[in-house]
Amino acid sequence: MLATAHAPVDNTVMNSLAHLQPQLESGLDALALPTTLAPRLLDYLALLDRWNKAYNLTAIRDPREMLVKHLLDSLAMHAHVEPGRLADLGTGPGLPGIPLAIAKPRLQVALVESNGKKARFLREAVRQLQLDNARVLESRAEEVDEPGAFDLITARALDRLAGILAVGGHLLAADGQLLAMKGPRVDEEVAELPAGWALAAVHKLTVPGLDGERHLVVVSRKNP
């Protein structure tokens, strides 16, 4: 049984995923994250696995595949996420927002999701995982009325860079940044950036257990 310092999710589901803890701890170690995060991350994975059977929150069904493609993939960007306020646009079942909120308690995360069933799952996950640093905004990103309220926005699978900025750029503070997980080629998307925005950096990421290249693209305003 996984020992945690918080209220656990259903023990039967948790125990069914306990065999994944060594793989998760190995991945966390490779990402230079403390392995003590593993129990809470597995709690989240167990909750997602249980709800996914009824609500189809993600197309990935195998928990071991979820561990790599959801948890570790989301956490691969952690070194480039400073404490502050982050809006995760189109977060779906909470990716990357919930893993980042678990790993970075000083990060304040707004989980933005317009789909009702996904938003219900997010509220339950925030409650059960006792994530005091996360809140759910059941809304389309362009309708979130918090202009300039965030240091960072991210969107794991929402749109191309220009599309993300079109719906969420208003949420960023003057010196705020978009952090977007992308594949190996971003030249075309960078060329599409709207006026007033520029590429700030591209960081190559390594996701333990995942084949293929991942990059974190950082976009900021010109001369903020």
Query: Beta-strand percentage?
Result: 15-25%
Shape: globular
The CATH first-level class comes to: Alpha Beta
> Any idea what the CATH superfamily is called?
Vaccinia Virus protein VP39
- CATH fold descriptor: Rossmann fold
Question: What is the residue-averaged pLDDT?
Answer: 92
**Cα end-to-end separation:** 50 Å
Largest sheet: 7 strands, mixed
Structural class: alpha/beta
Q: What is the ordering of alpha helices and beta strands?
A: HHHHEHEHEEHEHEE
Strand order, sheet with most strands: 3-2-1-4-5-7-6
> What's the alpha carbon Rg, rounded to whole Å?
17 Å
Instruction: Report the count of strand segments.
Output: 7
CATH architecture: 3-Layer(aba) Sandwich
Helix content: 25-40%
Low-confidence region ranges:
1-8
Number of helices: 8
Structural notes for this entry:
With 224 residues, the chain is α/β, with parallel strands linked by helices. The chain is 36% helix and 22% strand. A seven-stranded mixed beta sheet has the order 3-2-1-4-5-7-6, sandwiched between helices.
